[in-house]
Design brief:
Elements lengths: L1 H21 L12 E2 L4 E9 L1 H5 L9 E7 L7 E3 L4 E9 L11 H4 L2 E8 L2 E8 L7 E3 L6 E2 L4 E5 L4 E7 L3 E3 L6 E2 L5 E5 L1
Antiparallel strand pairs: 1-14, 2-3, 2-13, 3-11, 4-10, 5-6, 5-9, 6-7, 7-11, 8-10, 12-14
């Protein structure tokens, strides 16, 4: 009987520790210059494309965009942060599939949350994409919300993929495929 209680207590402690680890949100030192990473993980793609066509979601100014794709593992911090100061212009959740994140078409076919923000004379889009394990994306900002660079704007449950899209003409990207990035701290690019 005692061993059963000890085993039950050990399982309870393990579950609480996993929950706390998974939901951790460490403080970040946000650099004053540059565009910071919206997610914690590994850069798996950096490419140029038409955001509106790729995601079937029209955003003026992103017809020719640099897209940075960051894959989160279940061990990464799952908070999504604002890459720069600005105002939230649009937030839209789109239903989709639950393909594994290592399948390339999961970027454009899976369920996702798109957050569009404006700052000065530019625009940026953050896409939180669910995966086979990540069944839920959370957005904690609404249209009209003013946000600061590094501020928490959402979360992806159990890892998946985050995409940052920036106008090609206005930004120089400083990261490449294979680099590990930290949400709110790693500078991904800067204004030209």
């Amino acid at each position: 009987m005692v061993w059963e209680w000890i085993a039950a207590f050990a399982i309870l402690v393990a579950c609480v520790e996993f929950y706390m680890f998974f939901n951790r949100s460490p403080e970040r030192t946000v650099p004053k210059k540059g565009i910071v990473s919206p997610a914690n993980g590994k850069v798996v793609e950096v490419f140029e494309g038409n955001f509106s066509k790729l995601f079937d979601f029209s955003v003026k100014g992103l017809e020719k965009a640099k897209l940075i794709v960051i894959r989160l593992s279940p061990l990464n911090v799952h908070v999504t942060r604002a890459p720069l100061n600005g105002t939230i212009k649009r937030v839209e959740y789109q239903e989709g599939k639950r393909l594994p994140v290592y399948i390339k078409k999961s970027l454009f076919k899976n369920a996702r949350n798109i957050i569009v923000m404006e700052t000065g004379k530019t625009v940026a889009a953050i896409v939180q994409i669910s995966g086979a394990l990540a069944r839920r994306v959370v957005c904690s900002v609404k249209e009209g919300t003013k946000i600061e660079k590094g501020q928490k704007i959402g979360k992806i449950i159990l890892g998946s993929t985050t995409v940052l899209a920036l106008p090609s003409k206005q930004f120089k990207i400083n990261v490449s495929r294979g680099e590990n990035v930290v949400d709110g701290e790693t500078v991904l690019g800067e204004f030209k």
